[in-house]
Amino acid sequence: MTEDVKNQRVPQADAHEMFADRWSSRAFSKQKLTDDQIAALFEAARWAPSAGNRQPWLFVYATDGEKREQFNSLLSDSNAIWAPKAAMMILVFAETTNEDGGGVRTGMFDTGAAWMSLALQANRMGLNSRPMGGIDLDAAYDVAGVPRDRYTTMCAVAVGYRGTDDDLHPRMVKNNFANDRKEPGEVAFKDTYSV
Length: 195
What we know:
Elements: H1 3-6, H2 17-21, H3 35-46, E1 57-62, H4 65-72, H5 77-80, E2 88-95, H6 107-124, E3 127-132, H7 137-144, E4 151-161, H8 184-187
Antiparallel strand pairs: 1-2, 2-4, 3-4
Helix pairs in contact: 3-6
């Protein structure tokens, strides 16, 4: 199936095309990423907005070798079918407790902004990125060497070149397309929330 058939999204307002164009395929090719490409992804995330400029996001990534195998071991069974083919896997953490033991209330919110910056940069570079909640959230601390007392494991993200349906397990092909979103009127309300 061609890319234009996979993504039938149509914006309802004059938002930049990059938002509807970005979608998270499960199909990845085996093509490697360069160090410059990886640097550009994290550079984009670096400039995400954050409350008080705290920048509470933390990304730990692996591309190959024994460490990548450890990252792959964190995947749920359904994600383990496709995610290991991606050139890079990122473990995403949010700082939710500061150095003094107090809470970082916007840590997860700001980390989401950084992930979105990375996702949009990946798309502009012709790359695919797909987040996964289906990982062993607790074991991720040990694999990544991240302290449990300061950070919350958020997810993993597979990044690489988009593959084709031939790169997927046959049962995943029918669901590998850019799904739609709720109508704007379901998530944005003027003055007060109403149903």
